[in-house]
Amino acid sequence: MRILVYGAGVIGSIFAGKLAASRQDVTVLARGKRFEELRSNGIELSAHGVHRNEIIPVNVIDHLEPDDLFDYIIVAMQRTQVDSVLPILSQNCSRNIVFVVNTAAGYDQWVQAVGRERLMLGFPSAGGERADGKVVYF
């Protein structure tokens, strides 16, 4: 199964790292400094209170083309960032787009952008913090 995690913050990194560690074909879309960190070092995860880090290699890209096909695209970013990626997602050919974004604003705009038949909603049930390229989660 090919999975794209669109967003490489805390939630996106946890999802991507755990899926890649379970031998799924995972690609992460990241930009700027985070793109360089992931390309050079992979995802570094550490459970809160555990003094052992997991280094998980992942594929990383910095943009999504309309013909980049994934079985699932998991959108993991802050609500304030979602509007800027809706046009990109609307043009992509992937059939399953899962938003794991906390919002009280409803989902009508997302349905209009990607289509009801492609939209799925999820809840992250995770949290943590990112510092110096490492994600500590709980």
Strand-helix topology:
Elements: E1 2-6, H1 10-21, E2 25-29, H2 32-41, E3 43-47, E4 54-56, E5 59-61, E6 72-75, H3 79-91, E7 97-99, H4 108-114, E8 119-121, E9 128-131, E10 134-137
Parallel strand pairs: 1-2, 1-6, 2-5, 3-10, 6-7, 7-8
Antiparallel strand pairs: 3-4, 9-10
Explain the overall architecture.
The protein is α/β, with parallel strands linked by helices and 138 residues long. The chain has one domain (2-137): Rossmann fold (3-Layer(aba) Sandwich). 30% of the residues lie in helices and 28% in strands. It has four helices and ten strands; from the N terminus they run βαβαββββαβαβββ. It has helices at residues 10-21, 32-41, 79-91, 108-114, and strands at residues 2-6, 25-29, 43-47, 54-56, 59-61, 72-75, 97-99, 119-121, 128-131, 134-137. Strands 5-2-1-6-7-8 form a six-stranded parallel sheet, sandwiched between helices. Strands 4-3-10-9 form a four-stranded mixed sheet. The longest helix has 13 residues, at 79-91. The relative contact order is 0.22.
